[in-house]
Amino acid sequence: MNKLFFIVSLFFCITINAQDSLEISNGGNSVHNQKEIIIDNSDIETQKFNPNFKENYKSSEFQYEVKATEKGAWDRFLEAMKDFFKDLFGISDGVSSKAVDVTINIVSTLIILFVIYLIVKAILNKEGQWVFGKSTTKKIISDDDIERNLKLVDFEKLIKETIKSGDNRLTIRYYYLWILKRMSEKSIIDWNPEKTNTDYFYEIQNQKLKEDFSYVSYLYNYIWYGEFDLDNNAFESAKKSFEQTLKSI
After folding, report:
1. Among 16, 67, 101, 235, which residue carries the largest CB count within 10 Å?
2. pTM for the full predicted model
3. Where are the alpha helices (DSSP H) in the chain?
């Protein structure tokens, strides 16, 4: 009898605990029936992606990966030099970089000095063919244009140089042009490089000067254009005639 009472009591306790647990798990009054459930039967619109949607994200604003800068020829050359010094002397990258910088600076300086040397050499070599005017400001005239720039030429200095060099024919030419310059300065002739000796001859009013000019013009044409080789005696004689004409102007 006692055993039967114990079994019934145990069954009764288990039943009560199960009911309490069910009420807790359902939250008290949280049990709903089917009528209280709302079912959404509205149409669902399917969203589709534009096939080319990626094109909108190709600008720089959407680039999140840092791309390495492509190395140019100069950068590759510097790297090759660094590797050369590193392999040759067994030095570190930092020391090889400094060695390359020093080498580049030395080579650049040598190139600049060489260019300056070429420029100075070209100027000095050409200076012997230039003519300087008498004015305080130096003006340079090439031999090809000397007849068009008589007023800028220091013929006295030029003649001394040609006599020293032994170029007698060129000395006679400069004497003749000096005479034309002197007569132009004295307004005896109207200088124009397109005029001939005959044109100047008729412009001279002084008869004595006209005769002297006619003679030196003959010497000039014969010696310069005729490419006549002058010995010392012939040169001194012609030189004397030109100097006398210069003094008479």
Report:
1. 235
2. 0.44
3. 2-25, 73-89, 93-127, 155-165, 168-185, 197-203, 207-220, 232-248
Around Cβ 174, how many Cβ atoms within 10 Å? 23
d(CA 180, CA 199): 12
Q: Could you tell me which of 218, 193, 216, 213 has the C-alpha nearest to residue 202?
A: 213
- Measured CA to CA, the distance from residue 180 to residue 159 in angstroms comes to 15
pLDDT, tens digit, for every residue of 181-240?
A: 999 999 999 988 888 889 999 999 999 999 999 999 999 998 888 877 778 888 999 999
CA distances from 1 to 5, 126, 225 (A): 6, 146, 168
Has residue 59 got a pLDDT over 50? Answer: yes
Q: Are the beta carbons of 181 and 150 closer than 8 angstroms? A: yes
